[in-house]
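Appendix B. Extra example for self-study. Work through it before the problem class; the solution is given directly after the inputs so you can check yourself.
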Amino acid sequence: MKINKDCIVNSDGFLFNPHSGESFSVNSTAMDLLSLLKEERTEQELFEHLKTSYEVDEFTLKADLNDFLFLLRIKGVVDE
Amino acid sequence: MSDHLTIAVSGLNAIDNPGPGVPVLRSLRESVFKNARLVGFCYGALEPGAYMKDLVDVCYQMPYPSDGADVLFNRLSYIHSIDPIDVIIPNFDSELQPYLKLQSRLQSELGIRMVLPTSEQFEMRQKSALPQFGEKASITVPKSKVYHSLSEVESDMNHFEYPLVVKGRYYDAMICYNGEQMLSAFNKISLNWGFPIIIQQFVSGTEFNLIGVGDGHGNLLSSVSMRKMFITDKGKAWAGITVEDEALSDVAKRFVMASQWRGAFELELMKSNEGVYHLLEVNPRIPAWVYLSTAAGQNIPELIVKMALKHAVTPLSSYQIGKLFIRYSWDMIVDYSEFGSFSVKGEKTNVN
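Solution. Structure tokens for the complete assembly:
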């Protein structure tokens, strides 16, 4: 999984998709994930990273990560 | 060369559905024609562009398009006799028909040039003819039907699916959610703009606009796409951002190829939730957000003037993505004598 190369994420957490014209504000956790997606990490690697970085149960983490990645897919921010 | 050139521009009004004249003039002031004499054509003494002294050198009040082509020709002949004009850029839909009628006469008798589509091209993109054009050009267009009277629409009342959009021939569009709203919108728009009225299938999604220029031979010379970010209650973009989407550019290419369009145009499109672009309207002129394209790297008014003067033009292929326009209003302060003189004389010379 990798972030669409044309999408721009600045250091303030502002994400712009130049194809759709949509823009989003993302929090620090999402910024963290987007920087890993730039390195083409797998979904499992994202899960492992979050599990070690945050105090959260696996069930909640899995659900939240799925939701976030689903949102990125439908907004055209990530390519499979 | 540009020091001796005179370019006239109309559409200097700036209500919440502003005319394109001021941004066209602003683009020309930043073009290779920046030293040209810029003339404003106004329909009233309260058009704010007339008072923008850094943009306009002289203004003339013009007869309304409904007065006909002969009245317009007489006015243009008078203006040309005291202020010889090289190029006119008409910016209102309703002006285009009289200017189209006069196009060859203005060039042969007065030497005034314009870059306009042909009458056939102008007609084929009318709202009432758009579905047929869409089929020809392989562009998705929402279903629509044209009505010439209230009784016609009343007889179809049981067949409508809501929401739908009621549109005037040239201006205005209202989304209606039931029959009562539809009849009210039908009456209101027909009262303001006359018949026919177009009733169009409503498509939900995200609005995009594209400004482009066709060379008259099926080639696209310029194209800038914009996503509307903030919309007024009239559906006009008050803020927008340049985007790049190949599917959107393809619609413009198909439009220009199928129509052999000559001159500037604007495509209004709705991207449905399924990702399909639906062509809602084709405006046969430069739109009011044209300065965004200039700021992003494609100066379309400059291109139009070059085409009018038969200069060699090369297609403008790229522009900056992620440039926004954010529109605002600004109260100019004008002395009553300046307004009064323009009202009475119908002419106004601006001195910086």
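Self-check: The mean pLDDT of chain B is 94. If your reasoning did not lead you there, revisit section 3.
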